[in-house]
Write a structure and sequence with these properties.
Number of helices: 5
Structural class: mainly beta
Helix content: 10-25%
Length: 492
């Protein structure tokens, strides 16, 4: 049978000279995988498609997406509860561009659904934009006008939703994920099962996504909402996403081996009592990138046990954008964050970069004329983060910095707990430092002394070195499969 197919295909190639380049490549994939090699779940399957596939709407029965054709996402494609979507290694998936931002293409795994997208280092699975000229076999035409880091927001992203616990405002047990209209019930996440299993996601490259469908309603490269510890996520790349690279909303799934680069906002974002372990990760700043890490804690009551609220980040390497770029903070700890960042290396950050321990608090409802503040800005009058650090619930230690081009190591830590005088509070009509029952005046002698002691402790528990010590930072040999490596962006 295989010999016959080879003869038939050879005849088509010889006599069918009008066949396009892409079609020829697809036929070659079919021949090479016909006998099966043990790696592709669909090898030898007569149901393999012969033309590109377009997917839209809710998937209600198990499906396999094969790697010999390109798969297009038209609007939202939802893996429904009780359904498993399997994606072969080496598959290319492209999100279609929509004139209506609310119809942005995205792959969504609803609660109870599973995504088994298991690529490999030799054959990763690539999610990209319709305009990316990549072929199904992951090659490019010789004169291709390839997309760049400036090509962001061309489609949505991947959203995985689970039944694990999250800490929400008003202590509700479920919430609608950002980026999905409230009318779509498949956007709900959260529950009571910390062992929830949403599948296996390995060796995935997500490129040029992040469509913003409304103010504060963005789609991240990879969004994980209430995803449980039964889920496996490793070897992930997010490139040129308009918003965050990877964001965790509650849940306790672990992540290992990840690269986020040239994203438009934060590389790794944590919210709502996420409590998993994130290890061996890389951040490479782009022109529009903001934080390497933005970390928030609970929004409602703390989950139990206490450890269920604590994140862990270890062996990260973060490369800043250089001294010319303004802002680009290294890390920002906010609103009840508890957990740890350890054994990590930070370099190439400029003079404006810092690690902020922000003050939580209320919001301004009015401001004085000429104020630098705006209505709705947070009043940093609540030292929750500072107290968490003092108590040992928030750790930042055994990390190393090369601060040769930017701010000195001795001034890189900022405990931002202040009471500006150019705004009016929302509690009593006259701003003061005690609008919250946990507020304290940071300018008081006792508080100033404790803040100075905390900064001294941060300096003593971390180090400034030209190059990271052994065991500090990410092992970048794990990332040779990524576009970051092959394009030269991973040059360290």
């Amino acid at each position: 049978m295989k010999t016959f197919l080879k003869s038939l295909i050879l005849s088509l190639v010889v006599f069918g000279t009008v066949a396009c380049e892409v079609e020829t490549e697809i036929v070659e994939v079919l021949v090479s995988s016909d006998s099966g090699d043990g790696n592709n779940p669909g090898s030898g399957n007569n149901n393999r498609p012969t033309t590109d596939q377009t997917h839209t709407g809710i998937i209600t029965a198990d499906e396999i997406w094969y790697n010999n054709v390109i798969h297009f996402l038209d609007d939202k494609v939802v893996v429904n509860s009780g359904v498993t979507l399997t994606i072969e290694e080496g598959t290319v998936i492209k999100g279609l561009t929509s004139s209506d931002i609310e119809d942005a293409a995205a792959l969504i795994v609803a609660r109870g659904g599973k995504l088994n997208a298991i690529g490999s280092a030799d054959h990763p699975i690539i999610f990209t934009a319709e305009d990316d000229p990549i072929y199904a076999d992951q090659t490019y035409p010789s004169a291709a006008n390839r997309l760049t880091a400036a090509d962001t927001g061309l489609w949505g992203g991947i959203i995985v939703l689970g039944n694990a616990r999250c800490s929400f405002k008003n202590n509700v047990t479920e919430l609608q994920i950002e980026g999905i209209p409230a009318s779509d019930s498949y956007g709900l996440y959260g529950g009571t099962n910390d062992s929830d299993d949403s599948g296996i996601i390995k060796y995935i490259s997500i490129r040029h996504g992040g469509t913003n469908i409304g103010a504060g309603n963005e789609i991240n490269g990879l969004t994980l909402g209430g995803v449980g510890a039964g889920t496996t996520i490793s070897n992930i790349e997010v490139y040129a996403n308009q918003d965050d690279g990877i964001e965790f909303f509650g849940g306790n799934v672990n992540l290992t081996n990840a690269v986020v680069w040239s994203q438009g906002d934060d590389a790794y974002d944590i919210d709502q009592s996420y409590a998993g372990n994130i290890s061996n990760i890389v951040y490479i700043a782009g022109e529009d990138s903001d934080h390497a890490f933005e970390i928030d804690g609970r929004e409602g009551t703390a989950l139990s046990p206490e450890s269920r609220n604590k994140f862990s980040i270890s062996n990260a390497t973060a490369k800043g954008p250089g001294n010319a770029a303004e802002g680009r903070e290294i890390a920002d700890f906010r609103s009840y964050a508890v957990g740890s960042i350890t054994n990590s290396y930070f370099f190439n950050f400029g003079v404006d970069a810092d690690i902020e321990f922000d003050g939580d608090g209320t919001k301004y409802t009015s401001v004085v004329d000429g104020s630098t503040k705006e209505v709705g800005d947070k009043v940093a009058n609540n030292p929750t983060i500072f107290d968490a650090y003092q108590a040992g619930d928030l750790l930042f230690n055994n990390n190393e910095f090369n601060s040769s081009i930017g701010k000195s190591f001795t001034s890189i830590f900022a405990i931002k707990w202040s009471v500006p005088t150019d705004a009016v509070s929302d509690n009593n009509g006259a701003f003061d430092a005690f609008d919250s029952n946990v507020s304290r005046d940071p300018s008081a002698v006792a508080e100033s002394a404790s803040i100075a002691a905390a900064i001294a402790r941060l300096q003593s528990e971390n180090t400034s070195l030209a190059n990271p010590s052994e065991g500090i930072g990410a092992d970048t040999s794990n990332f040779e499969w990524t576009l970051a490596f092959t394009s030269g962006a991973l040059d360290f």
